[in-house]
TrEMBL record:
Top-level taxon: Archaea
Catalytic activity: L-threonyl-[protein] + FAD = FMN-L-threonyl-[protein] + AMP + H(+)
Protein name: FAD:protein FMN transferase
Coiled coil start-end: none
GO molecular function: metal ion binding; transferase activity
PROSITE patterns assigned: PROKAR_LIPOPROTEIN
Length: 339
């Protein structure tokens, strides 16, 4: 799981929106809709909000409201903000009167942990800290020993997260990482804000985690392209995205140390970096589901990851293995474009 929020998919694998610009639409029910788009850097990634609205004023309000939700979630769950509830929990082990959104994400994380057999576990942070310490200046510049990992793994147990009467607490030494879930939740909250403002056709994409509602003004769906990891600008497939979320987890040369080549996603069950998969892309109804299950697949690997997805309702995946094979869940191809 991520040490921090995942960066934009700017290396070997990216999710690209194959629809952009301010394009004037055909009249719809006496309203002429235009596409308005804005991009900002939030949660250590690039976030784009695109909406169809009758005028710039309505689009601006809706877009501002969407970004406000993302900023709010970031303020709660950022690992780099000293006053975030995540930082407070990791520092003192307890947060009283925790924000309902913070509690919701923690509760949902337990669901993903159970569905993945512990491959998704937000209490992985002590293991990530251990790996990082080894490759910082002054560190050994070598992987942790088996004894060090086994000792640290005693602090990794999602069932030990206590949530009671609005208070969240951890056992001594435990810490959590929300890099594999918070961004997806922020995307969902941003879409909710757009819908509350009456926006019916829009998308929010945060560094490869996106949710898409409605359609483009010409009646065609949003299209999401999955880039070929070996050829920049080429796509292995394209997805028709109408009222779905799409998220990708992967290894994009993001390492603790360039020479060590250590993946930023580690297995909470073993403490070792995940291997065997270049990327896992998940389609789901909500971005929080897509984000979390994509991370879980990356940890589980091809066979176990595919088995998990096949047992979930309304969730599909595409896995790219290290030997460049494309592995599809049974219903994924239904979302692919015919062109």
């Amino acid at each position: 799981m991520d040490l921090k929020y995942k960066t934009p998919l700017a290396f070997l694998l990216v999710i690209s929106i194959l629809a952009s610009g301010c394009v004037q639409s055909e009249p719809q029910e006496e309203k002429e809709l235009q596409e308005f788009q804005q991009t900002k850097n939030i949660m250590d990634t690039t976030v784009t909000v695109a909406v169809y609205a009758p005028n710039e004023s309505e689009a601006s309000k809706a877009t501002d409201d969407a970004f406000s939700e993302i900023y709010r979630i970031d303020a709660l769950m950022s690992p780099s903000k000293e006053d975030s509830q995540l930082t407070i929990l990791n520092t003192v082990g307890e947060v009283e009167n925790a924000d309902p959104d913070f509690i919701y994400v923690l509760e949902q994380s337990k669901y993903y942990s159970e569905k993945s057999g512990g491959a998704f576990d937000i209490t992985i942070q002590p293991v990530l800290d251990l790996w990082k310490s080894k490759f910082l200046p002054g560190g050994s510049q070598e992987p942790p020993t088996a004894d060090e990992l086994n000792e640290t793994l005693k602090l990794v147990n999602y069932s030990k997260i206590s949530i009671e009467n609005g208070t969240v607490s951890l056992e001594p030494g435990m810490k959590i990482a929300l890099g594999g879930i918070a961004k997806g939740y922020a995307v969902d909250k941003a879409i909710e804000a757009l819908e509350e403002d009456g926006i019916e056709n829009a998308f929010v994409n945060a560094g490869g985690d996106g949710k898409y509602i409605g359609q483009k003004s010409d009646g065609t769906p949003w299209v999401v392209g999955l880039q070929n990891p070996d050829r920049s600008g080429q796509y292995v497939t394209a997805i028709e995205a109408r009222d779905i979320a799409v998220a990708t987890s992967g290894n994009y040369e993001r390492y603790f140390n360039e020479s060590a080549k250590v993946s930023h996603i580690s297995d909470p069950r073993t403490g070792y970096p995940s291997e065997g998969i270049i990327s896992s892309t998940v389609i789901a109804g909500n971005a929080i589901d897509a984000d979390s299950f994509a991370t879980a697949i990356f940890v589980l690997g091809e066979e176990e990851g595919l088995e998990m997805i096949e047992n979930l309702e309304g969730v599909e995946c595409l896995i790219i293995t290290e030997d460049r094979r494309l592995v599809y869940s049974s219903g994924f191809k239904e979302y692919e474009t015919e062109d």
